[in-house]
Task: structure prediction
Amino acid sequence: MTIEVYENKSMIDDLAAQVFTDINMSEPVKLLDLPNAIETKEKEILDDAVHNLKSTYKTMFKPTSTCRAPHVHMDTMRENLFEFGVVRQIKADTSEELYNFLVKENQGLAKMKPERWMALRGRSSEKAVLKALVKAKKYKFWLGMPGAMGLVLGRGK
Result:
């Protein structure tokens, strides 16, 4: 057992605040990140493709899985693509093929009318969807819209 002794009370308070913040901001480990849950090549394809997508659309990726549409969380997107077997369904041999598939799907989503987005909104309010559509249009990123990944993943099959 390691014991650390601090004499400075403000340092203890700062440390306690930091530990509390770190614990509350932590994200659960995704299934695909567990050992032997996925083949190495498939994981590399997913990781690289989503990382490249994040590089292209930096503003739209957030560090927490509870981000608001049209923002996305990188690990959650990777997990969704893994769970639906998109790499295998589209027969992607490289991360570029998966990345190109996602970009093409994103461009297709851009053509959807607001009425269609409203039909896919689920529990999101109409106001929230309209606000998200404005942001999606501004940043040219629709993959984070409510219902978008369902459409994409469905077409991947």
Observations:
- Residues 30-156 form one domain.
- The chain has a mean pLDDT of 88.
